[in-house]
Design a protein that fits this description.
There is one protein chain. The chain is of the alpha+beta class and 300 residues long. It folds into two domains: 20-93, no CATH class; 110-297, Glucose Permease (Domain IIA) (Distorted Sandwich). The chain contains ten helices and 16 strands. It has helices spanning 23-31, 33-43, 46-57, 65-72, 89-93, 140-144, 147-152, 194-197, 203-206, 274-280, and strands at residues 6-9, 14-17, 110-112, 117-122, 157-163, 170-172, 178-179, 183-185, 209-215, 222-227, 235-237, 250-254, 259-265, 270-272, 285-288, 293-297. Strands 1, 2, 4, 5, 7, 8, 9, 10, 13 and 15 form a ten-stranded mixed β-sheet that branches. A three-stranded antiparallel β-sheet has the order 3-16-14. Strands 6-12-11 form a three-stranded antiparallel β-sheet, with no helix packed on it. Strand 1 (6-9) and strand 2 form a beta hairpin. Helix 1 packs across helix 2. The longest helix has 12 residues, at 46-57. 41% of the residues are buried. Residues 22-49 have low confidence and may be disordered.
Length: 300
């Protein structure tokens, strides 16, 4: 029996039970013997996600937009364009918001959340016993696909930002600096919902993912990893490698599906926000929006 997913909402100050898009399917495929056969035979395969992404890019899919907005209570005043103007569900899914919809925390030392979502932190890598489930440990070398880079970030700080299908699906830079070219790492496409990660944390470093190294800013070298997942049509990047970016600048977007982005800081670079620290210590995610304060740059 899968436990409900409870999240601390930074804005309401309350613990809320998450309404999971596709919950019945996820519980079946990750919790039932027949579902697991389907997972390994079909759902984790790229063709399954590509087919679903193709369907969501067809003009016929636009009829899903209005019911989706109504069902999940999305704030249309944030949209840069009217919901009726999108040519497909995927066009709506990767929508831009009005410039004032996500103000960026402005103190010089601020570090911001890179995406709308549910965030969970490992303040010190190597001390993450119980991350999602007791006994699971984070394999940084496999996540980064680079043992030398993993060594640089040993003992550092990690923040996992999980996006659900109902979220704004563009992701941004948490600090200023100069980003390198995106490095794609191949793999299958398992779900990254807690329903799946409670069983197997390694989906995060088994899945197809994209690594971007950012340097040249006050945070020094920072690594982000954008993780693909079941039914994610694809990951697109909108930044220019080698050009300076500001904190909160757009980095890219996911097409249809829920996914995750990971932010890594070196040891002693960042102090995380109190609510993120306290709830992560209880293995409970914090809901916060892109641009809000994740923490501050300082020796902890």
């Amino acid at each position: 029996m899968q436990k409900p997913i409870h999240v601390f909402n930074r804005y309401s100050g309350a613990i809320e039970e998450e309404e999971i898009y596709g919950e019945a399917f996820l519980k079946w495929i990750y919790g039932h013997p027949l579902g697991r056969l389907a997972l390994w035979g079909v759902a984790k395969r790229r063709f399954f996600s590509r087919f679903y992404g193709w369907r969501m890019s067809r003009p016929a899919s636009r009829k899903k937009v209005a019911p989706f907005v109504a069902t999940y209570g999305l704030n249309e005043e944030e949209f840069l364009q009217a919901k009726e103007s999108f040519g497909s569900f995927n066009a709506f899914f990767s929508r831009r918001l009005r410039p004032d919809a996500r103000p960026i925390a402005s103190a010089p030392s601020d570090v911001v959340f890179p995406a709308d979502g549910r965030h969970l932190a490992i303040p010190v890598l190597g001390r993450e016993e119980g991350f999602f489930v007791k006994g699971q440990r984070f394999d940084l070398a496999k996540l980064l696909d680079d043992a030398e880079l993993a060594h640089e970030f040993a003992g550092g700080t990690l923040v996992l930002s999980r996006l659900c299908p109902v979220d704004y699906h563009r992701f941004h830079f948490p600090v200023e600096g100069r980003p390198e070219r995106a490095m794609r790492i191949g793999g299958p496409l398992f779900s990254v919902s807690p329903i799946a990660l409670r069983q197997r944390l390694s989906y995060l470093w088994e899945n197809a993912r994209v690594r971007v190294v950012l340097d040249g800013g006050p945070a020094g070298k920072v690594v982000t990893v954008d993780v693909g997942a079941t039914c994610v049509g694809s990951i697109h990047y909108t930044y220019t490698p080698g050009e300076d970016i500001a904190r909160g600048d757009e980095k890219g977007f996911f097409e249809f599906g829920g996914s995750s982005t990971i932010t890594l800081f070196k040891q002693g670079v960042v102090c995380l926000a109190d609510d993120l620290l306290s709830h992560s210590a209880k293995n409970q995610e914090v809901y916060a929006r892109m641009g809000d304060r994740m923490g501050r740059l300082v020796s902890c």
